[in-house]
Amino acid sequence: AQSVAQPEDQVNVAEGNPLTVKCTYSVSGNPYLFWYVQYPNRGLQFLLKYITGDNLVKGSYGFEAEFNKSQTSFHLKKPSALVSDSALYFCAVSATTDSWGKFQFGAGTQVVVTP
Amino acid sequence: NAGVMQNPRHLVRRRGQEARLRCSPMKGHSHVYWYRQLPEEGLKFMVYLQKENIIDESGMPKERFSAEFPKEGPSILRIQQVVRGDSAAYFCASSPGTSGGRRSSYEQYFGPGTRLTVT
């Protein structure tokens, strides 16, 4: 069975400082990893994905994430946070041994960026 | 290119009534997924459908819930005899199909959700 853990319910960061949102996963087989962002009363917006290849992937709005197979982690990062990055962030995993469409989501991490 | 459409955006039902949630995937997408988000929780997978086929329904409650994606028209998530515990946001997502046996895209694109309130 696959699972995702986001160990922090909330991350607070000052505008202009680096932002990191943590995610660890457990799957059978090779993982496909995703980050999504959700603004209040909205659907999820896709940020980036890791399927194969380079461990560092770049996505929308200046976000990037690093896949670390030995630590089974896929942390989301942004070098300089903006107030507008305040939102709920979800990590998700899908596995090659499971149905392709079955995403397992983490519980989410609320990011608060203060001016 | 319009995104994933869901309607209604808000739905209020009394206990015992039926709720029908509709989802139109993005143009060109043939795979549809339904997720449920309870307050203060992440999204939980419910069901994965292709046109006229249920691929994976391992997340669907055994009773009262059903889903379909007909050849024509939107995907429907149907909840019979709703109870207060069904109150949640229900999200639909879509993705392209396969080409030559390979997936052309892995990410799913989400609609704005339907917020169901059972009174």
Helical stretch tally of chain B: 0
- Strand content of the residues of chain A, in percent? over 45%
Cα-atom radius of gyration of chain B: 14 Å
Low-pLDDT parts of chain B are none
Note the gap between the termini of chain B: 37 Å
For the secondary structure, the number of strands of chain B is 13
What's the tally of helices of chain A? 0
Percent range for β-strand residues of chain B: over 45%
Largest sheet of chain A: 6 strands, mixed
Q: Spell out the helices and strands of chain A N to C.
A: EEEEEEEEEEEE
Largest interface: A-B, 23 and 27 residues
Radius of gyration of chain A: 14 Å
What is the arithmetic mean of pLDDT of chain A?
92
Low-confidence parts of chain A lasting 5 or more residues at pLDDT below 50? none
Q: How does the helix and strand content of chain B classify structurally?
A: mainly beta
Q: Largest sheet of chain B, described in full?
A: 7 strands, mixed
Q: Give, in order, the helices and strands of chain B.
A: EEEEEEEEEEEEE
What best-fitting shape of chain A do the alpha-carbon axes yield? globular
Helix content of chain A: under 10%
Q: Which percent range fits the helix content of chain B? A: under 10%
How many β-strands of chain A, per DSSP? Answer: 12
Description:
The complex is a heterodimer of chains A (115) and B (119). Chain A has strands at 3-5, 10-14, 19-21, 24-26, 31-38, 44-50, 56-58, 64-68, 73-78, 87-95, 104-105, 109-114. By secondary structure, chain A is mainly β. In chain A, the strands form 3 sheets. In chain A, strands 2, 5, 6, 10, 11 and 12 form a 6-stranded mixed sheet that branches. In chain A, strands 3-9-8-7 form a 4-stranded antiparallel sheet, with no helix packed on it. In chain A, strand 8 and strand 9 (73-78) form a beta hairpin. The radius of gyration of chain A is 14 Å and the shape is globular. In chain A, 36% of the residues are buried. The model of chain A has no long low-confidence stretch (mean pLDDT 92). Helix content of chain B is 0%, strand content 50%. In chain B, strands 2, 4, 5, 6, 9, 12 and 13 form a 7-stranded mixed sheet that branches. In chain B, strands 1-3-8-7 form a 4-stranded antiparallel sheet, with no helix packed on it. A two-stranded antiparallel sheet of chain B has the order 10-11. The mean pLDDT of chain B is 90. Chain B has strands at 5-7, 10-13, 19-24, 31-37, 43-50, 53-56, 65-68, 75-79, 88-95, 98-99, 102-103, 109-110, 114-118. In chain B, 34% of the residues are buried. The A-B interface holds A 32, 34, 36, 41-46, 49, 51, 90, 94, 99-108 and B 4, 31, 33, 35, 41-45, 48, 55-56, 58-59, 91, 93, 95, 103, 106-113, 115.
